[in-house]
Amino acid sequence: MQQHITDLQGTFKLHNGVAMPYFGLGVYLAEDGQEVVNAVKWALDAGYRHIDTAAVYNNEEGVGRGIAESGLKREEVFLVSKVWNSDQGYESTLKAFEASLQRLGTDYLDLYLVHWPVDGKYKDTWRALEKLYAEKKVRAIGVSNFLQHHLEDLMETAETVPMVNQMEFHPYLVQPELIDFCRKHKIQYEAWSPMMQGNIFKQKEFEALADKYGRSIAQVVLRWDLQKGVVTIPKSTKKERIIANSQVFDFELSQEDMDRLDAMDKGKRFGPDPDNFDF
């Protein structure tokens, strides 16, 4: 499914009509304080309009400062955070959300995600997100690291189908059946760790493709994400890298090369397994 990819501020429409920029900055492991403030400001200055953080990253305050210092209006930035596992459950999620808003210095989020499918808790967590959504404190709600069986279980009792599922996604972990399931239910797929935690830079097969297009390996892989209709949020705290990552709108991968990247799928995770995590 070829989505219309135009430029850095282009969007995919979520099933509730909210426009979500399909390219953003991830700030996992960016240190709170000046490091993350700079990364956010450089990204926004380069034209990014989507910033993805989480309570557990411990840098929401810096993200909020970066947005405030960017000179952009709050509504010009699509801001995402996530409820951490130890805060899951109904009341505790509502409290965690308010704490995130306070740290971010904002009175609403554009998207709030359940960070991991914590067994026995994520349904109550989801009810809390539905309440926040009904109260218009968040413009869209979704999940992260939910496999198909988690989604099916959640949707049995949910009033609102998740708008987004943010997953580990890269050429070694494509999970096409999960993508198809999400597409069928109009759940927008989103990639975390699109660079395989740096491992794409060590593979000859990616090098050959990058040479063919006269691009960096990162640019080729990020372009593949977008052409797959997958929202992507590469993380970096280096100005040149933040800018280079976003320069993926003036070339297109052929269908043959899209298929070639798809065919690299090994079902290999570099991050934790959603069926087997203990945090």
Describe this structure in words.
Helix 2 (60-69) links the parallel strand 4 and strand 5. With 279 residues, the chain is of the alpha/beta class. The chain has one domain: Alpha-Beta Barrel (TIM Barrel), CATH 3.20.20.100. The model has no long low-confidence stretch (mean pLDDT 97). Helix content is 38%, strand content 13%. It has helices spanning 34-46, 60-69, 90-104, 122-134, 148-157, 176-184, 204-213, 217-227, 239-245, 255-262; strands spanning 11-13, 19-21, 25-26, 50-52, 78-83, 111-114, 141-144, 164-168, 188-192, 231-232. The strands form 2 sheets. An 8-stranded parallel β-sheet has the order 3-4-5-6-7-8-9-10.
Helices, strands, pairings?
Elements: E1 11-13, E2 19-21, E3 25-26, H1 34-46, E4 50-52, H2 60-69, E5 78-83, H3 90-104, E6 111-114, H4 122-134, E7 141-144, H5 148-157, E8 164-168, H6 176-184, E9 188-192, H7 204-213, H8 217-227, E10 231-232, H9 239-245, H10 255-262
Parallel strand pairs: 3-4, 4-5, 5-6, 6-7, 7-8, 8-9, 9-10
Antiparallel strand pairs: 1-2
Helix pairs in contact: 1-2, 2-3, 3-4, 7-8
Features:
globular; TIM Barrel; 279 residues; eight-stranded parallel β-sheet; Diketogulonate reductase-like aldo/keto reductase
Q: What Rg, in angstroms, do the CA atoms define?
A: 18 Å
Summarize the helix and strand pattern as letters.
EEEHEHEHEHEHEHEHHEHH
In CATH terms, the superfamily is NADP-dependent oxidoreductase domain
What is the CATH third-level topology name?
TIM Barrel
Number of helices: 10
Major sheet, described briefly? 8 strands, parallel
Tell me the distance between the termini.
Answer: 35 Å
The overall number of domains is 1
The amount of beta strand, in percent, is 5-15%
Which consecutive residue ranges, at least 5 long each, have pLDDT under 50? Answer: none
Q: Spatial order of the strands in the main sheet?
A: 3-4-5-6-7-8-9-10
Please state the average pLDDT score: 97
> What is the CATH top level name?
Alpha Beta
Family: Belongs to the aldo/keto reductase family.
Binding site for substrate: 115
Keywords: NADP, Oxidoreductase
Organism: Zeaxanthinibacter enoshimensis
